[in-house]
Amino acid sequence: MPGPDHGVPPRDGLAVPTTVAFVLHPVGPLPAAVYWRRRLLVLVLLVAVLGGGSWLGVALLTGSEGTASAAGTSEAASSSSAAEPPALDRVVPSLAGVQTPTPPPTAAPAEPVPPAAPVQEAGAPCSDDVVALEVRTPGTVAAGSSPTLELVVTNTAAVPCTRVLDAQLQEMVLLDAAGTRVWGSNDCQPETSADTRTLAPGEQVVFPLTWSGLTSEPSCTAPRVAVAPGQYVVRARLDAKTSPDAVLQVT
Q: Which stretches does the entry tag as region Disordered (predicted)?
């Protein structure tokens, strides 16, 4: 009986031992090149199988990681989409992000500049700028009475000056509420004089005049009658200089 299986099956009645020498030097009825090609083909198939398995494993691992990465990217995109503001908010900035310009500080209104004092040469004729005129009245008089009116001339300059105060240069007129001339001091009894004075700074000269209480006109040809009760104003003149109006109530 044959012994234990320690080799390949008997070939031609002889047992062929399985040794390294046998593997490296195949022995058989066919040429050795045939056995080498078979072994090379088996080796190539084995390498292909092993390589295919490795590639499949790597592909499986890579696919799993890609799926997980894609899922993570999708979740991140979803989160980012959810966190992004609406399209209108991206186009129109929020009020908190808009910087309004700070208005410049408002400058305090400038104080009015007082007019410059008129220049008056000492001892020279007083100009109209330094001469002040004022009319003084009793305020209220009875119709038909003869009140006294006063023309006051004042030198407002800081130096003395001269002024012609001739009577023919002075005049008082009475005007009603409509501005109509009712009486004039030079209409019926004009006066003349030569009166040139040197006025000290602040000095006043008063010229009193008694009014008859009657109407008049420049030619003094119209009948003169008592001024009717009402409110009137008296205005004075010294040459071309005029005074403010003074109220006179006739009752």
A: 95-123
